[in-house]
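Ticket #4471: complex job returned nothing on first submit. Input attached below:
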Amino acid sequence: EDIGVSMALFDDNFLTVLRNGIEASAAEMDGVEVQIEDAQNDLARQLDQINNFIASGVDAIIVNPVDTSATQAMTAAAEAAGVPLVFVNRQPINVDSMPDNQAFVASNEIESGTLETFEICKMLRAQGLGGGARAYVMMGELSNQAAVQRTKDIQDVLGMDMCSFIEVIDQQTANWSREQANSLMTNWLSSGEVFHAVIANNDEMALGAIQAIKAAGIDMADVVVGGVDATQDALSSMQAGELDVTVFQNAAGQGSGALNAAIALANGEEVEQKVYIPFELVTPANIEGYLTQN
Amino acid sequence: MGDQFILETRDLTKHYGGVHALEGANFQLRAGEHVAIMGDNGAGKSTFVRQITGVEQRTRGDIIFDGKPVHFSGPLDAREEGIETVFQTLALADDLDVPDNLFLGREITKWNFLGPFRLLDYRAMREATIEGLERTAVKIPNIRNAIRNMSGGQRQCVAIARTATFHSKLTIMDEPTAALGVQETAQVENIVRTLKEAGEPLILVSHNMRQVFDLVDRVVVFRRGRICANLDIKNERISGEDVVAYITGAKTQEGYEDAA
Amino acid sequence: MGDQFILETRDLTKHYGGVHALEGANFQLRAGEHVAIMGDNGAGKSTFVRQITGVEQRTRGDIIFDGKPVHFSGPLDAREEGIETVFQTLALADDLDVPDNLFLGREITKWNFLGPFRLLDYRAMREATIEGLERTAVKIPNIRNAIRNMSGGQRQCVAIARTATFHSKLTIMDEPTAALGVQETAQVENIVRTLKEAGEPLILVSHNMRQVFDLVDRVVVFRRGRICANLDIKNERISGEDVVAYITGAKTQEGYEDAA
Amino acid sequence: MANPNTLGTGGLAYDKSKRAWPNEANVFIALILIILTFEALGQLLPYMKGQSMLFDFNMNRDGTILNVARIQIIILQVSIIGIIALGVTQVIISGGIDLSSGPLVGAAAMIVMSFGQTELVNGQLNPKAVFGDWAFDLPVIVPIFVGLAFGALIGCINGSFIAYTRIPPFIATLGMFLICRGIAQWWTKGQPVSFPTDSFAAIGSGMMPVVWFALLAILLFLIMKFTVYGKHTYAIGSNEDAARMSGINVKRHKVLVYMIASMLAAFAAVILSSKNLTAQAGMGQFYELYAIAMAVIGGVSLTGGRGSIVGTVLGAMVFGVIQSGFTFIKLDAYYQLIAMGSIIIGAVVLDQYRQQRATAG
Amino acid sequence: MANPNTLGTGGLAYDKSKRAWPNEANVFIALILIILTFEALGQLLPYMKGQSMLFDFNMNRDGTILNVARIQIIILQVSIIGIIALGVTQVIISGGIDLSSGPLVGAAAMIVMSFGQTELVNGQLNPKAVFGDWAFDLPVIVPIFVGLAFGALIGCINGSFIAYTRIPPFIATLGMFLICRGIAQWWTKGQPVSFPTDSFAAIGSGMMPVVWFALLAILLFLIMKFTVYGKHTYAIGSNEDAARMSGINVKRHKVLVYMIASMLAAFAAVILSSKNLTAQAGMGQFYELYAIAMAVIGGVSLTGGRGSIVGTVLGAMVFGVIQSGFTFIKLDAYYQLIAMGSIIIGAVVLDQYRQQRATAG
Ligand SMILES: Nc1ncnc2c1ncn2[C@@H]1O[C@H](COP(=O)(O)OP(=O)(O)OP(=O)(O)O)[C@@H](O)[C@H]1O
Ligand SMILES: Nc1ncnc2c1ncn2[C@@H]1O[C@H](COP(=O)(O)OP(=O)(O)OP(=O)(O)O)[C@@H](O)[C@H]1O
Ligand SMILES: [Mg+2]
Ligand SMILES: [Mg+2]
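Support reply: We reran it on our side without changes. The output follows.
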């Protein structure tokens, strides 16, 4: 079978693992060809790619949506052409009204930010800061839904009674980037404010913050830093005692799961329409189980 | 001063940073009069023209045109008041062809109710262009070629044809025949004579002594940014050598001693 | 043809798209000879100059310079072979000042072992510039101003000074005095006379009949892209009117009938 | 040109048959070459098993020899950026540049969609509602008008800065690039806006974007070629000083040029958000670069004064063919970027080479 | 200028005291104005409680009245893009533009870091190894050399296309933009490359980027001002035809200009990946735009021929101050983009206004 895959963005570490998962499992199967395209975070381009796949006659399409609220148009395009469609990693907005030959394998983004922030909250409390702690928040690119959602999760958790002792000093975007996070953190440090935690929307920014904090000569044991993704660099940093919290999502598993579903649909088989892959919290306590995963 | 002045400047001055390109110029032009401006290279002749036509904003001084003090904010204003100019830099759009350049800014149009989107009447402009060019005797094998590809003299003739095609209250020509051949120069001089007969006033900047003596009534000499002589060559006995003496500074006219 | 030709062209031709700007030009220049090229606007004079100096690639024909057939791929080649040119468009860099333009492409430098990063000797160039400009008699209040801010004549003098400052096997000047004042023209004519005395050959494109008769040995007339006359004005009795007749096409010289 | 005399006033011999080709011809040749290359690759690459890109010799899909579906998608996928490119073309011809069109699409889409939302989705209140009750189910003219007004405002600011303060267009529109991105993100704090009314969704559904592109291309073509507006745009781009000295109101004209460009970009945003049934702050990323590239591939000169709408439309087609062609021959995404870059360079090299040949002729 | 006679050959009266200011002075004034604005905001905004941005009146942190930490970060955060801007400055002065520098940073970082990896991470084999054993723990000169060679190659391709086929620099480098992004993604199929050797990590650690920026800025300043290379760059940008007719080897020179620009961008990639201890394909996004903006804010004219390295350094400082200032006054991210766009426009408007005043004077 020919399977067309449209990824939201190639430049994303996590999505790269997912993409490699799809490619690796396709290589193991006989007669399965995957054609992976990069939507470059442009949802219009993604819709065009789906149309292109349909025009070139693929047997099924896997989409990692740029924007989960744009899935309606994609569903309609595939449905009209009768080509099976599988959404991966991000839960489409029209999940309840998808036709039979469409499915999704995804995680619920609400979990990631919540798990991260709640763990940081617990750690700060354990350090005896329950009377009042101060944190910086680093956001991803604001036009990106994951950034918006994870930031909202942080606010929701900090709004709960149990964690409301944490005061957000400032909340800025570093656009997912380690370099920008490093600059942002250095700027914050130059104001001389006391802080106890940095809550970042992803690991790259958490690592940038850590580099800046280390360069300022502050002991990493005094600061709680959290991210999302559980990348190799992040895990290595956690092993070195710098990063405190991250959140793992089984990218490779999602990739192969989506491919299997697509092939099954292409062959006219019944598949489960909704497959949720949960996020998992990673801390120094359970890191060993994740070192070789992503 | 009982005469009717079409143009008068008082203390007209222009400094570029530290360069005093034009200093206190008092100049008068009577209705129907043809005046030449002469002077060394860099004496400030073109600067004077640029101030009058609103291309640049003067440092100080007054300009009285057609009886009213004027403050042109740009060459468009000057043209709308009736001043037509052949600039030394010619002011042609390199990528456009000859008719486009000739009618730039006052195209012949149809359907004028469309405002800025009114239609161009290409055919009428082409025909009028051929006519206009023939008056300058210039030869252009294909007027639909871009100005970029024209020879120096062809370009100059286009600029002159542009000015000569439209009626005006005052015509200014800054070295119009510098790049022209023998025949073309003669034709342009004819155009100037026609203006004289029609009673239209003219300011002619030129380095060509013969041309100046043939064509104009009066010569104003610029030296080092100042007017240093005002010579009524039609009525007084003034030779080419005299004018050169004023240009080089060997002589200075009475009343203009501060220009020395 | 026993003479030594410094430059010879055979059947030199240049078409621009459909425009036949130069057609089968056979031209000879002897060592030490000064020749003028005359002709209407758009007759192909500058095109001829551009082919010789490698600014453009010819459509067909041969150029023999200093005894060898040459194929200049650009003006740099021509200059390296010893051809110095004042182009009609002047070829000045508007944003640079006068010394920079005068020495463009052959700066006075120090520390030459640094290759392209060798140091400029600003002081030496400035002094040489003042000297070079004085030969043209032009007045420039501040040579460190950008060329953009110079008057038409000042620019032309800079271009001439550039050519006159360096020795060459052949000098070409395309309408060098078009924008110049009376004094500056006289000076440039002196420069040309100096070249004559030094035995350096020259091609002068000019529309100025007096200048041509004063300065050169021979006149070549272009008409409609072809050479239509070759006039030995020093030895034959030829008047200005004759030359004009050749230019306008009233007369055609023997041997050039196809140019009619 | 009925009368040959009207062509000139004589002088040199002039051979009409040897006139230089129009520049658009070069672009057209490049387009054909690229199509043929993909066709050839389809025949030659072993894993393609002799497929054809544009033809359908079995006629099994819709009974025509052309693969209509693919031709449609080729045009469809460049229509929206193509509309932006039309506006950018006249900006570049006027000697300017517009970097703000991409982010403007994002901002305009967010704003427009907020006025085009429907009240009920699957029987429930619209979960993405931006405003309250009053903004639901508005007539479709309202979002369109709001979009065009927003575009006109942005264009007017761009143009006014460029015309009246004389700052370089690159900087004015780069500043506006950042401002529009800011507006897009600020509007709903990054939340996408979704669920348009049916009439709004109809604007960009199916092949409607192609229709809009075609209509606007024809309109702009006529304007640039036959009206005073077009002539003055060329004149300003060719030599701004000359245009000013010739008495063109350069400042007012520039404001108009940028306004039209931004209104076209805003209209593209209307179609884009309608087509995708959603608006997102990140929409339109890199559209400004692609729009400029389409224009330049189509022969528009970045120094101003030269180019045409026909060229830009052909340039847009080049883009469409490349994108579909890559998917057709199943080229890996990594190589796609490299190949795309090479083709863009190659197309312009070809154009340049032919132009030089033409003048050297 | 010891002898006043050397200034000219006479003619008009010339008043030396009224010479126009250097353009850099305007940029400097803009910089001071922006700093003062942030200082004032720190005093005036209620929630800032009268803090100061650049001063530290308590002297409690390091005993100086200046807030040294903030001044350092202001320069540090623009050093890397600043190095790119130095190269871009000479490209723009030569009349060109370089859009490929941002993606080149990404590609060069990936390649460079692959040659700068260490073998053991936390006692285990480097989990991100790109090559085999042989590429571990290489001397630091190897990755630097590889980076510069890659930069030289890309620059040579850019320059050769622009010089020899005469395609517009915008298109040549836009094509290279895509190609470099493709290379960056293809190199490890998107996997980041991490864990450099200690000596590699030292290149960009701490304040080293500032040192590099300062050294390179001085070098480029000297080159542009005092060497034949600099003069010819200005001449080509001012009037390419004139430069060619004056006998400058324009083609060879352009290749050199683009090579130097790309080598500087590649060196910036070395520093960037060293500073961040990682290389990722998406690195350097928008750097090309920011580098160009720094140059233009610093007074470099996009039409070529005008500008200076001093201006660009000041332009970079403007960026640094803006970024730190926003964090200082805790401006929301949404408004940051809008404010940044406005300040960029404002700075150039000021520059333009003062320039016009100067010539009008
Ligand atoms: N924008 C400017 N900035 C500085 N100096 C300028 C500027 N424009 C002109 N100048 C200077 O002003 C002087 C007068 O220039 P202008 O063009 O008026 O001379 P001109 O009399 O027309 O000379 P020509 O006969 O050569 O055309 C010159 O020395 C010139 O260098
Ligand atoms: N690049 C070009 N493309 C098309 N036509 C051209 C080009 N360059 C020159 N021509 C044409 O060739 C003819 C000759 O031009 P050229 O510049 O040689 O004239 P010229 O004899 O120097 O005239 P002048 O005395 O006005 O300087 C002109 O008709 C001109 O329009
Ligand atoms: Mg003048
Ligand atoms: Mg000529």
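Chain C touches chain E through 42 residues (CB under 8 Å). Closing as resolved unless it happens again.
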